[in-house]
Q: What sequence folds into this?
């Protein structure tokens, strides 16, 4: 289990000439760090006199962001689990027509499977950025920089997960599947990036006043 490794061990595993962990797992891990900062900011702001009327909002954000962080951590291992069969499929023999057909058949199944983890990371990262948008106006100013750090981590995770979705989609022959997934993924990236940038700009404004 990759998620049982220390941060140092995980980074070393990531650096090795191995199929997993890779970019998909890294994206999920960065997303987990980004949403963890949301939880931290909510915890520090919870119960403060200035935000005494926002206790229920803080509680909801702590609960939701904790749930997302746990799901991102699970996706680190899920991405590796689903990608490994794909790496083996690429190594299948293709010396004749029968072998080539069988290899392509297996590849197509594995590609869709491998695409599912980064796509889930993409969807959840969009939701996580939304939680940073919610915490921003009810967070203590002396910790608001962490909202900015968190949303930048999530923006990186959003674009990184998209790249991992795209590289799998580019090899999938099912045109309808590719079209639907790509359209949804592009919208998540476009809307998520816009929202992340808006949050980051508001953090900069708050730190400049």
A:
């Amino acid at each position: 289990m990759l998620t049982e490794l220390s941060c140092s061990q995980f980074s070393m595993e990531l650096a090795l000439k191995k199929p997993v962990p890779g970019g998909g797992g890294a994206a999920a891990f960065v997303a987990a760090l980004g949403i963890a900062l949301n939880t931290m900011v909510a915890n520090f702001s919870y119960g403060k006199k200035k935000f005494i009327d926002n206790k229920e909002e803080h509680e909801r954000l702590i609960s939701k962001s904790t749930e997302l962080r746990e799901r991102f951590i699970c996706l680190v291992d899920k991405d590796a689990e689903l990608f490994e069969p794909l790496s083996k499929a690429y190594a299948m023999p293709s010396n004749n027509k029968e072998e080539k057909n069988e290899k392509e058949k297996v590849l197509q199944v594995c590609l869709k499977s491998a695409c599912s983890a980064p796509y889930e990371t993409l969807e959840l990262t969009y939701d996580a950025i939304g939680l940073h948008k919610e915490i921003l106006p009810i967070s203590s100013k002396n910790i608001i920089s962490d909202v900015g750090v968190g949303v930048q981590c999530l923006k990186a995770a959003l674009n990184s997960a998209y790249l991992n979705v795209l590289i799998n989609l580019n090899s999938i022959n099912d045109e309808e599947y590719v079209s639907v997934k790509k359209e949804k993924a592009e919208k998540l990236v476009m809307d998520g990036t816009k929202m992340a940038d808006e949050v980051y700009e508001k953090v900069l404004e708050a730190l400049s006043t």
The chain has a mean pLDDT of 95. Residues 37 and 59 are 15 Å apart (CA to CA). Helices lie at 7-15, 23-45, 55-90, 97-135, 145-169, 175-207.
